[in-house]
Design brief:
Elements lengths: L2 H18 L2 H16 L3 E6 L2 H15 L10 E4 L4 H11 L6 H7 L5 E6 L9 H17 L3 E7 L3 H6 L2 E5 L4 H24 L1
Parallel strand pairs: 1-2, 1-3, 3-4, 4-5
Helix pairs in contact: 2-8, 3-8, 5-6
Length: 198
């Protein structure tokens, strides 16, 4: 495939995602996050690989971009950001406990978790190894009365099934899913900020 044709195909996939993605699901996610903000709940954000960088970026934007003078602000924490702690946990407790262990220390009952995963912990192929730490964290949060938001791709996997609200990027392409998850986090923050400025 030529360079021009590849670019055209990549952009065509983006248009298809935009046309297919559920606006109602986006609205439900925003509602859960905004309730967490308004209720003073913490919003923990987790992901593996490229989704870890999206988690960090999302926490930054929730804490900074949505902050409006005189309005309640988000308490967003990305559990990827303390590298010494994360590597100590991986070394001593195993990768599958890297997020649930931190939540045991930091979470109050009723807090919110955003889990970002391309495959959603489907359990097929290598996905079982990739995302079980996310699903373990989800189980802990739900057992303590918290809400879970999922950002997923492909078929959504187990994460979509156990989330209180999720947004599925409807394509079987890791680069497209990861890229569009960033679009979604920016959309969410922009809409929340717009509502708070009214």
């Amino acid at each position: 495939m030529s360079t021009i044709n590849f670019i055209r195909s990549y952009f065509d996939d983006l248009k298809e995602i935009i046309n297919k993605i559920s606006r109602d699901d986006i609205g439900r996610v925003i509602q859960i996050l905004d309730h967490a903000r308004n209720d003073g709940r913490r919003v923990f954000i987790i992901g593996n690989g490229g989704s870890a960088s999206t988690a960090t970026h999302f926490a930054c934007d929730l804490n900074k971009y949505t902050s409006v003078d005189g309005k309640k602000r988000f308490k967003a924490i990305s559990l990827e950001d303390n590298i010494p702690l994360l590597t100590a946990l991986v070394n001593d407790e195993g990768w599958d406990n890297a997020y649930s262990y931190q939540l045991e220390n930091l979470m109050d009952d009723g807090d919110c978790l955003v889990a970002i995963s391309v495959h959603g912990g489907t359990g097929k192929d290598k996905a079982a190894l990739w995302s079980q730490n996310l699903l373990k964290a989800v189980k802990l949060v739900k057992s303590r009365g918290g809400k879970v938001v999922g950002l997923v791709g492909f078929d959504g996997g187990a994460l979509r099934e156990v989330s209180d609200a999720s947004i599925l990027v409807p394509i079987d392409s890791t680069p497209q899913v990861e890229g569009f998850h960033l679009v979604l986090t920016h959309l969410i923050c922009s809409l929340i900020r717009e509502q708070l400025l009214k």
